[in-house]
Write a structure and sequence with these properties.
about 20% strand; binds magnesium ion; eleven-stranded mixed sheet; Rossmann fold; globular; five-stranded parallel sheet; binds threonylcarbamoyladenylate; alpha/beta
C-alpha cells in the first residue's frame, strides 16, 4: 500500500471539520472520535472509498461495517422497514452507543454490508463525529480505527500509532468517554437479538424489549455477528484471565516469577500484587471506569514489552459484560480458575 500523507487535526474546530468533510466527500478516509472508540470513516455510499477502509485496517472483506448517521430522521434512506421497537430505542440511545441491524435498501453498497441484505446503523453521541457526518452530507461507514486484531483505539495517540500513513486525516477528540464499542442489536429476526455486548448494557435494553435474546455467551465463541469470529482486541503479549476468589487470584499470580509478566487489575487489589508491571483499570465498584481504561491498558502493556498478562476476571454487571467479552477475546478465551 502506498504511504499516505496523514493530516493530524489537533484542534477539531469548524475549519478542520469542514476540511475533513471535504476529504470524505472526495472519497478519502478520516479517523474520528466517537463516545465509544475512534472510528475509521469513509463515504458509506461510495464503494471505492469503503474499500480503502478495509485496506488501511487489513480487515477481512466479509466483516461488515457500521453506517454512522447524524440523525435518526435520515434512517429511511438506508433501511426498508423501521420496526416499532426502534421508536423507543432511538429516543433513548440514538445518539448513543447502540447499533441496530435492519434490512438494507439498495442505496447501501454491498462492500459496506459484506453482501448481507442487512445494514448496521448507529448515531454516535459525540459532537465532532456528528458534525463530521453532517458536513460530509452522507452516511459514514466506520469500523474501529485500529489495525485489524489489535485493541480498539480510545485515544488520539492510539489512532496515530496504528493509522499514520494509511489514512488521509485523524481528528483529535481526546479520550473516548465510554471506551468499549457499541452494543450491536439485530432487529431483523423474530425476536431482537444482541449480537455484541457494548455500551448499552443488557439490563437497560431488557427494560424496553421484553423478548430480548443474546447470540453470544461470555465463555464460548460461537460467532453470530460476522465480525465476532476473528481474533480481536489482542495485545502482543499472551493473555490469561485468572478467575476465583480475590485471595486465591492474588496468591496464584504472586507465585509467578520473572520480570516479563504483567498484571491487569482493579484499584482495590493493585497494592497487593508483587510485580511492578501492573496496571489498574479502575475500581471494581465502577464498571464504567474500567471500561474507559481497558483498551488503553492493553496498549500500555505492548509499550512495556510485556510477554504475558495475567488479568483479573472483572465483575460482569452493566458495561462489565462488554469489558469481559473484549478481555476474553483478547485472551483467546484462556481462563485459569483458581
Ligand atoms: O462503537 C462502535 O460500534 C465503533 C464506533 C467506531 O462506532 N465501531 C465498531 O465497528 O466497533 P467494528 O467494525 O469494529 O464492529 C462492527 C461490528 C462487527 O462485529 C460487525 O460484524 C457487526 O458490527 N456488523 C456490522 N454490520 C452487520 C450486519 N449487517 N449484521 C450483523 N453484524 C454486523
Ligand atoms: Mg473493531
Amino acid at each position: 500500500m502506498n504511504k499516505i500523507n496523514t493530516k493530524l487535526m489537533d484542534v477539531p474546530d469548524e475549519v478542520s471539520l469542514k476540511y475533513c468533510a471535504d476529504i470524505i466527500k472526495r472519497g478519502g478516509t478520516v479517523a474520528f472520535p466517537t463516545e465509544t472508540v475512534y472510528g475509521l470513516g469513509a463515504d458509506g455510499l461510495n464503494s471505492s472509498a469503503v474499500e480503502k477502509i478495509f485496506i488501511a485496517k487489513g480487515r477481512p472483506n466479509d466483516n461488515p461495517l457500521i453506517l454512522h448517521i447524524h440523525d435518526i430522521s435520515v434512517l429511511d434512506k438506508y433501511v426498508k422497514e423501521v420496526p416499532k421497537t426502534l421508536t423507543v430505542l432511538s429516543r433513548l440511545y440514538m445518539p448513543g452507543p447502540l447499533t441496530v441491524v435492519l434490512k438494507k435498501r439498495s442505496i447501501v453498497p454491498d462492500s459496506v454490508t459484506a453482501n448481507l441484505d442487512t445494514v448496521a446503523i448507529r448515531v454516535p453521541d459525540n459532537e465532532i463525529a456528528l458534525k463530521l457526518i453532517e458536513y460530509s452530507d452522507t452516511a459514514i461507514a466506520a469500523p474501529s480505527a485500529n489495525i485489524s486484531g489489535k485493541p480498539s483505539p480510545t485515544m488520539f495517540e492510539h489512532v496515530v500509532a496504528d493509522m499514520s500513513g494509511k489514512v488521509d486525516a485523524i481528528i483529535n477528540g481526546g479520550k473516548c468517554r465510554i471506551g468499549v464499542e457499541s452494543t450491536v442489536l439485530d432487529l431483523t429476526s423474530d425476536r431482537p437479538v444482541i449480537l455484541r455486548p457494548g455500551g448499552v448494557p443488557y439490563d437497560s435494553l431488557k427494560l424496553v424489549i421484553k423478548d430480548l435474546e443474546t447470540a453470544y455467551a461470555l465463555n464460548t465463541d460461537t460467532p453470530k455477528s460476522p465480525g465476532m469470529k476473528y481474533k480481536h482486541y489482542a495485545p502482543k503479549a499472551d493473555m490469561v484471565i485468572v478467575k476465583g476468589e480475590t485471595h486465591k487470584v492474588l496468591e496464584a499470580v504472586n507465585k509467578m516469577s520473572g520480570d516479563d509478566y504483567g498484571v491487569l487489575c482493579c484499584k482495590e487489589t493493585f497494592d497487593r500484587y508483587n510485580t511492578h508491571n501492573k496496571l489498574c483499570a479502575g475500581s471494581i465498584n465502577n464498571p464504567s471506569e474500567i471500561a474507559s481504561n481497558i483498551f488503553e491498558c492493553l496498549r500500555l502493556f505492548d509499550m512495556m514489552r510485556i510477554k504475558k498478562i495475567y488479568c483479573e476476571y472483572f465483575d460482569t454487571k452493566d458495561i462489565g459484560e462488554a469489558v469481559m467479552n473484549r478481555l476474553l477475546k483478547a485472551a483467546s478465551q484462556n481462563v485459569i480458575e483458581v
